[in-house]
Each structure stands twice: as structure tokens, then as C-alpha cells.
């Protein structure tokens, strides 16, 4: 879902490609209700919470006033990558466009989180090229690719990620002939034949999730999500980015712009309310439209993993005093919304507001507080891990 634009969005964001201009801008900076004075209605709370025994309700505010819209490097709830504020896209792009050769290659490889799937592939190809040609900036590097070399390098990149999945599968199952490895072998054959179908592959991979440890499956899924949905996407993004260094950098960075997702689509009556908001990059937010979470999780099976990381990050910011106490109830509220919208497929682990307040006070008193560790205690994961060990 994408929020309608306003004229105050800066020129970096306005310079979207012809294809991207067909959709509305991901950021809204509207000036509506004051955050402090608005509280959602009982009907809204009842809609989202249903029969759940939760008495909290979010606050009405525009997406532009949601707290993360003032914060840098927020992790995307869907892909997990770092997000750039729209007003800083140009600044971030210039960090890359000003470099050449090995410095450029090192910069790209050290900042993978700012590039989304297909953009990351192209950025890494640029890094390889710049490493071999010290005088090349991003523009010169991307212009050195022919259609043939682009396809060849794309195939190599995809096969590399598939082989990483195969390695984890064999180690985790202790079986050289496990079904995941057989699936990977079949996919490598397809990719080498010029056919890439990531969504179909991840759906099949999910069938074998129970064969491996949770952390190993997550590693395999991470490698799988590095593979572009199709080679057509690679050619399209390459075409958008082709040009001088600054243009290349902007086109590869822009998909990481921070947007605010309406969990229940705005087009279907989803309210402008904090319990219906979650921070998501433009690249993940834009394609969803009003797609249900049942369908969306097929496209982005990594969403539950990264949504959990995102809400852990959010709670850590509250405890550390970087997000104010008005959001103490947000974690439990957004948990309820995501659970309802996904029909129970997404169940986030969160701390209740009282615990968050307690931890914030401990932090203010000078104690170190690790939200992830606190969640492990809260959900009994420490004991489970000890028993397994």
C-alpha cells in the first residue's frame, strides 16, 4: 500500500522512473490531527482486536507523524533492510556516487542493508567491476555491462545463493541426498537455463521447513530472498539505473525509502491509526496494494522473521528513551493487528506495557537492558535452549 503524495516531498523522491511514476509517492507529509489529542474509537479497537482480551487502543495520526518517520536506519518489517528517510536519499546516494574503484567496492559491500534484492544484485556487480577497474565510478561500472554479461553475472549470483542453501541443508540434515538439496539442484538447472522463479522456489522450500533447525531454515530463506523474482526484474532495474554515477546510486537506494504500511489496507477502510501502522520500505510496501497477508506471505515468506526483529528493535528504542512512552502500548497493539490480518499466521513476541515501563526505569537508573533477552525470558526460550543443549 502506498500513501498519496504531497507537494513537500523533495526532488530526489519526485525523480522516480517512468514506471514508478504510475504509482503514488510512498510518503505522506499531511498535516492533520495532532498526535497527542486523538485516540481511536471503541469500534476501531473492536474491529482489530475482535474477541482478544486487549484493552489498549492506538492513536490517530497521519503516517507522516508516526514516530519512525523521524528516525534513521529503521529496519524494514518485511525485508529487514535498513530504511532511508526520503529527505536523505540524495545525501545517502552521494556517499556512493563520489567513490571509485576499491573504495566504491568496499562501500557497497559494507552497506548491503541499504540495497533491496534486485538492487543489491546490481550493486554487487558494480562492486566487482569497480574492484577490477580502479578508475570506475558507479556510472562507468554499470555502463561496462553488455546484455550478455548482465545475464551471465545474474545467473552466477543466483547460483551462488542457491549453493549456499544447499550447503546449509546438507549440514543441518547431515544427509547429502536430502530433499532440500534435490530441490536446489533442480532450481540451479532452471536458473542456468535462464529461468528464475523465486516465489515458486520459496513456496516449495517452505514444505521442508520442518526438516531443519529453525535458525538453519532462516539462513536458507535469507539466501533465497537474495534471488530476484525474475530476470525481467533485473533488466528493468538495470535500465532504470543506467546513467551517471549519482543517477545510478539514487535508483539503487530509493527502494529503501521508509514508508508507513497500513496493515489493514487504507483502500479497504484501514484507519490512519498507530495500531494499523508499521514501518516498511518502499520496495516492500508499494507492490502489496490491498493483497491479503495470506497471499503476501507467499511473496515475502521472510516477513514474520523480520517483523519480529522490527518489533524487538522498536521496543528497544522505547526502553532506551528514543521513542517516548506514548508508544508503550504499540507493540501489543500491532501484534493484535498483524495476528488478525494474517489469520494467526503472524504472532509477534512482545512485552506488555507494564514490563516496558519497568525496563525503561531500569535503563534510566543506569542498568543495561536487552529487550531480546527479556523476550526470551518472557516466552521461556532460555529454558528451551538449555534443554536442547
Q: Helix and strand layout, with pairings?
A:
Elements: H1 11-14, H2 42-49, H3 89-97, H4 101-109, H5 117-132, H6 138-143, H7 147-173, H8 179-192, H9 198-206, H10 214-224, H11 231-241, H12 245-253, E1 258-262, E2 277-281, H13 282-288, H14 293-299, H15 303-319, H16 330-341, H17 353-364, H18 371-378, H19 381-388
Antiparallel strand pairs: 1-2
Helix pairs in contact: 3-12, 4-5, 5-11, 7-8, 7-10
Provide a quick synopsis of the model:
The chain is mainly α and about 400 residues long.
Describe this entry's structure for a reader:
By secondary structure, the chain is an all-alpha fold. The protein is built from 19 helices and two strands. A two-stranded antiparallel sheet has the order 1-2.
Order of helices and strands: HHHHHHHHHHHHEEHHHHHHH
Distance between the termini: 43 Å
Uncertain residue segments: 1-56, 382-389
Number of strands: 2
Shape: globular
Per DSSP, what share of the residues sits in E-state strands of 2 or more residues?
Answer: under 5%
Radius of gyration: 22 Å
Number of helices: 19
Mean pLDDT: 86
Largest sheet: 2 strands, antiparallel
Going across the major beta sheet, what is the strand order? 1-2
Strand-pairing-aware structural class: mainly alpha
How many discrete structural domains? Answer: 2
Helix content: 40-55%
Amino acid at each position: 500500500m502506498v500513501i498519496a503524495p504531497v507537494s513537500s516531498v523533495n526532488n530526489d523522491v519526485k525523480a522516480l522512473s517512468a514506471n514508478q511514476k504510475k504509482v503514488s509517492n510512498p510518503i505522506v507529509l499531511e498535516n492533520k490531527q495532532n498526535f497527542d489529542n486523538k485516540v481511536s474509537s471503541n469500534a476501531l479497537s473492536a474491529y482489530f482486536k475482535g474477541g482478544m482480551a486487549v484493552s489498549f487502543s492506538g492513536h490517530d495520526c497521519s503516517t507522516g507523524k508516526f514516530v519512525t518517520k523521524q528516525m534513521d536506519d529503521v529496519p524494514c518489517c518485511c525485508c529487514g533492510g535498513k530504511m532511508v528517510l526520503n529527505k536523505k536519499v540524495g545525501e545517502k546516494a552521494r556517499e556512493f556516487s563520489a567513490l571509485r574503484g576499491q573504495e566504491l567496492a568496499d562501500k557497497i559491500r559494507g552497506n548491503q542493508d541499504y540495497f533491496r534484492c534486485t538492487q543489491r544484485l546490481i550493486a554487487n556487480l558494480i562492486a566487482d567491476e569497480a574492484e577490477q577497474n580502479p578508475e570506475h565510478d558507479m556510472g562507468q561500472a554499470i555502463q561496462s555491462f553488455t546484455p550478455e554479461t548482465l545475464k551471465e553475472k545474474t545467473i552466477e549470483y543466483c547460483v551462488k545463493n542457491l549453493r549456499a542453501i544447499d550447503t546449509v541443508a546438507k549440514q543441518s540434515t547431515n544427509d547429502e541426498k536430502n530433499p532440500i538439496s534435490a530441490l536446489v539442484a533442480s532450481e540451479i538447472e532452471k536458473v542456468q537455463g535462464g529461468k528464475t522463479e523465486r516465489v515458486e522456489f520459496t513456496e516449495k522450500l517452505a514444505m521442508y521447513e520442518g526438516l531443519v533447525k529453525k535458525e538453519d531454515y532462516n539462513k536458507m530463506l535469507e539466501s533465497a530472498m537474495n534471488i530476484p523474482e525474475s530476470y525481467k526484474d533485473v533488466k528493468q532495474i538495470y535500465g532504470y539505473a543506467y546513467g551517471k554515477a549519482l543517477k545510478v546510486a539514487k535508483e539503487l537506494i530509493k527502494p529503501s525509502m521508509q514508508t508507513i504500511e497500513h496493515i489493514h489496507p487504507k483502500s479497504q477502510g484501514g484507519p490512519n491509526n498507530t495500531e494499523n501502522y508499521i514501518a516498511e520500505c518502499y520496495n516492500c510496501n508499494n507492490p502489496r496494494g490491498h493483497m491479503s497477508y495470506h497471499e503476501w506471505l507467499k511473496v515475502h515468506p521472510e516477513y514474520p522473521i523480520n517483523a519480529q526483529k522490527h518489533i524487538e528493535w522498536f521496543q528497544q528504542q522505547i526502553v532506551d528513551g528514543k521513542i517516548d512512552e506514548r508508544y508503550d502500548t504499540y507493540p501489543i497493539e500491532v501484534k493484535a493487528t498483524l495476528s488478525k490480518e494474517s489469520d494467526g499466521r503472524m504472532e509477534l513476541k512482545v512485552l506488555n506495557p507494564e514490563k516496558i515501563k519497568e525496563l525503561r526505569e531500569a535503563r534510566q537508573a543506569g542498568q543495561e537492558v536487552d529487550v531480546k533477552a527479556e523476550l526470551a525470558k518472557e516466552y521461556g526460550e532460555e529454558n528451551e535452549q538449555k534443554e536442547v543443549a
